[in-house]
Amino acid sequence: MNYGKEGVRKQESALRNGTGRWGKKFGTILFKVFLLAILSVVILLISAGLGAFQGIIDSSPDISNIDVTPSGFSTFVYDSEGNQIAKLVSTDSNRIPVTLDMVPKDLQNAFVAIEDARFYDHNGIDIQGIIRAGYVAVTSGSFSEGASTITQQLIKNNVFTGWTEEDTLVAKFKRKIQEQYLAIQLEKTMSKEDILLNYMNTINLGQNTLGVQAASLRYFNKSVSELTLSECAVIAGITQNPSKFNPITHPDKNAERREKVLGNMLDFGFITQTQYDEAMADDPYSRIQVVDSETEDNTVNSYFVDALTDVVLDDLVEAGYTETQAYSLLYSGGLKIYSTMDPKIQGICDEVFQDESNFPSNTSYLLDYALTTKNAAGEYINYSDEMMETYFKQSNKSFDLTFSSTEAAEEAIEQYKAEVVGEDETIIDEKYTLTPQPQVSLTIEDQATGYIVAMEGGRGTKTASRTLNRATDVKRQPGSAFKVLAAYAPALDSAGYTLATVINDAPFNYSNGTPVRNWYNSYRGLSTLRSGIRDSMNVVTVKLMTLITPQLGYDYLVNKFHISTLVEREERNGKVYSDIQQTLCLGGITYGVKNIEINSAYATIANGGYYIKPKLYTKIVDHDGNVIIDNTSIEGEQVLKETTAFLLTSAMQDVVTSGTGTAVNFGGTAIAAKTGTTSDENDVWLCGFTNYYTATCWAGYDNNEDLSTSEETHLAKTLWRKVMSQIHEDLPSASFSVPSGITTATVCKESGLLPTSGLCDGSLGTEYFENGTVPTESCNVHIYQTICNYSGLAATDLCPFKVQQVVTVIPEEPDILKQSAGSGAGSSTLVDPNVLCPHNESFFAQPNAQEILVQQNQEIINRNAAAAGVDPNAAVDPNAAATDPNAAAADPNAAAADPNAAAADPNAAGTTPEPATTEATPPTDDQQNGG
């Protein structure tokens, strides 16, 4: 072996060469493996990407199942003459659809020019636009350059409606890919014209408007078909950013955008240079500002529309929709609701109720207050008006939340905050409202159709929609307004009573022993049911209710008059409440009654006893013109006999002509009405009707304070008359017609029976009766009785001063009434036949009997002369009396020929004013309501 240096070098060199060759081979292998790995990864990524892309495509909505037409449309409400009175909208529904022939070509071209210049050339996506947007993004880092086509925007707005909530890039890319895919698919099935039209009906154009028609009306107060080129450019310029380019709030920014729109239209050949110049010279923004200043804030609906929306929602649910569907349909379904509101009548009501001079001069204000603070520990503290009232009552027990002025209320608020809010507390939110008091409500119904033609739910500025509506939402005690419905209607209709039936107005107790008191603080004796209605007599009404039973009265209210707020039996906190009791007839009920329902009850009487459910609309038409609810039928049910309705109407006419409601008699037409006043005068009512309309007006404090002044206690009557007198100004005078089945008869008004000649001459009256109910028995109240004209006692056979006079005998009452009769329950003028005058045999056995007779005769003469207002010395010679003791004064009672004549009908005058005060009346206690 060669171990020399040269040999060693050769061996080392050989070894090095061998290692290099293997290294190169190994490196090449590694490089190939690396390339293969990269290629595999690329292939995997591409495959994954293609798979993901295909997955995204596959998860896209089926093009055959999607609908790109806008789904949210405004609902419009119209009055009875077809005028629009409200627009109901929710988020994404203030839209009015139009057809393509209504949209000016300039507006179509304006959108294409500014949003999608190659709209008519691409297949749904714009490749050039995508490349341009990508280039801008790479070179400038800005993604502001849009590449979405009109087709894509349509799909985004109507299919991917949740795109505004995307919070990751992955979600955005996924939606973008699906959007582009669906855009291509949509272009295969829908024409460019339909795509553009749906786009123009969909887009957000600011100021809570969706679609070109809503925007045109809001900015220019005209239909989209009437827009000029300049105005078209204004609207098209809004699209990219409805807030930034709003022509009302940012006219300068919109003007810049408008110039770009017009410039693009010129560049693309949509308009000529002349058209461009003319449009640029126009000033559309001055017109927009004028329209904006004249545009009313229609976001606050009237009380009528508030009530209407509640009814429509209920009716839609009843028709089979879920509550969610009903709400969506009402506010986003593009419905047309034709209401029953009469614009003229509603206008009269609005004018009267908005005129503060029609209200009491001592208007006060009820405070509703809420305050939220945050302390140093980060805790939120809430303060309410109840807490405020409790705080002030610690030092002033009479304090309440009613203030004499808004300034006084605001001072109290500041004082309260200064004293209870800690130094470490920061005010987060504070809200308060001041509502004028007393408050009011009114419902007017055309009784022949059931249509509610006008409504007022309160006084003062209405600050929001669907607020407290006192005509439909609030339950108040009806007081005496319930008398006709709960007692007199069932008594006449099915219990065998007539208007001539007599009940003794005398002391009487409820079944629990509490006395029933009349508002006039006295008793009037035998009184007819007509008088009971006319003069709103509490004792007569409660006795009648006792006779017919509270159950019958309750059944009529619930089943005939459809009062929904009554309680048959309810247990609360271990106590049982029921409205089936004597106090029902005086309006003492658990919860109260709604204005619209008691008005409907009186409308039933006005309509001949035929009940029709109150209606606020006649029909509802959907977005496609189909009638989904037809409410035009006036079918109802005959709940009272027509004759009963007439008898009640006749008696209520007396209320207006000579009873408790004379203040509402505006003349010119027949009026029937019933007043209502509750205990302590918390509530006052006037329920009345003519041949045309039935109206019910209520007044009272929201917090149940007493109505203390005459202006306040007469407020319901005042407003009722002011409204109804104007409504009837141009209507022909009309009297209430007498139906068949009604007859008249003369009766004794103190017995309600046929009169006896010579006995009932001072108490005769003509009354209406239903056929077959005219009394057949003769008067049992008036009789002749022989009395001693000197002593007034029953005369003996020997009495020289015998006279016959008519006396009143109080008929015996049914046992059920006798059980609760109070002391002094009789007012008979019958002289006790067992107590005789002194002229008996013993008297005449006296030696000076004749002298005594002469003296007694002179006393009679003097009494009669004094009663007649003549000189007693002009009387005849008293000696003549010795021969005939009665000759000197042929009839010592001549001055009062009929002692009952002066009070033949204790209620005849009918001019007694309504009471100043009445008694308190919880449902289970005494009800002493006024007229």
Automatic annotation (TrEMBL):
It holds the Pfam family Transpeptidase. Keywords: Antibiotic resistance, Carboxypeptidase, Cell shape, Cell wall biogenesis/degradation, Glycosyltransferase, Hydrolase, Membrane, Multifunctional enzyme, Peptidoglycan synthesis, Protease, Signal-anchor, Transferase, Transmembrane, Transmembrane helix. Pathway: Glycan biosynthesis; Cell wall biogenesis; peptidoglycan biosynthesis. Residues 442-724 form the Penicillin-binding protein transpeptidase domain. The keyword Hydrolase applies. The chain crosses the membrane at residues 29-53. It is found in: Cell membrane. Residues 876-931 are annotated as: Disordered. Residues 82-265 form the Glycosyl transferase family domain. GO terms for biological process: cell wall organization; peptidoglycan biosynthetic process; proteolysis; regulation of cell shape; response to antibiotic. It catalyses: [GlcNAc-(1->4)-Mur2Ac(oyl-L-Ala-gamma-D-Glu-L-Lys-D-Ala-D-Ala)](n)-di-trans,octa-cis-undecaprenyl diphosphate + beta-D-GlcNAc-(1->4)-Mur2Ac(oyl-L-Ala-gamma-D-Glu-L-Lys-D-Ala-D-Ala)-di-trans,octa-cis-undecaprenyl diphosphate = [GlcNAc-(1->4)-Mur2Ac(oyl-L-Ala-gamma-D-Glu-L-Lys-D-Ala-D-Ala)](n+1)-di-trans,octa-cis-undecaprenyl diphosphate + di-trans,octa-cis-undecaprenyl diphosphate + H(+); Preferential cleavage: (Ac)2-L-Lys-D-Ala-|-D-Ala. Also transpeptidation of peptidyl-alanyl moieties that are N-acyl substituents of D-alanine. Its EC number is 2.4.99.28, 3.4.16.4. It is a single-pass type II membrane protein. In the N-terminal section; belongs to the glycosyltransferase 51 family. In the C-terminal section; belongs to the transpeptidase family. Cell wall formation. Synthesis of cross-linked peptidoglycan from the lipid intermediates. The enzyme has a penicillin-insensitive transglycosylase N-terminal domain (formation of linear glycan strands) and a penicillin-sensitive transpeptidase C-terminal domain (cross-linking of the peptide subunits). This is Penicillin-binding protein 1A. It comes from Butyrivibrio fibrisolvens.
